[in-house]
Amino acid sequence: MKKSNFFLGDFLNNLLTPQGVITLLFVLTLQDAKAATAAQGRARPGATIFTLMCAECHMTGISGAPKVSDKSAWTTRIKQTPDTLIEHALHGYKLMPSRGSCSSCSDAEIKAAVEYMIEKVR
User: Fold this and answer.
1) What residues does 93 pair with on adjacent strands?
2) Residue 1 forms part of a structural domain
3) How far apart are CA 93 and CA 99, in angstroms?
4) Domain of 114?
5) Is residue 3 part of a domain?
6) What are the tens digits of pLDDT across the range 57-102?
7) CB of 47 within 8 A of CB of 38?
8) Domain of 26: which CATH number?
9) Whole-prediction pTM value?
10) Which end of the chain lies in a sparser environment, N or C, as judged by fewer CB atoms within 10 Å?
11) Cα–Cα distance, 48 to 33 (Å, whole number)
């Protein structure tokens, strides 16, 4: 049986789990940190971008995002060139929005975050 695509109900059900509540609190807590670091006007390291923007989905698997803790989910992705993965992050891919919804992230920061994730899953 083919898995269904992400639906609002799936998202809401995920939020009702302990992990979903933790994710929501994490996101709300980091909103000020995101604004403050973006306002500094310099490129933030990949680990910082991952924590502030990517972890919301890539730690929990929301919307089918591959978890960084699941190396098997990354097997086919890692076989692609890093440039392909960076293009997906910059322009969006499947359910992932362009720039991972980080409108304040520079291209260099998106690239650094992708490279950080690649290192985490190798």
Assistant:
1) 96
2) no
3) 10
4) 8-121
5) no
6) 999 999 899 999 999 999 999 999 999 999 999 999 999 999 998 9
7) no
8) 1.10.760.10
9) 0.68
10) N
11) 10
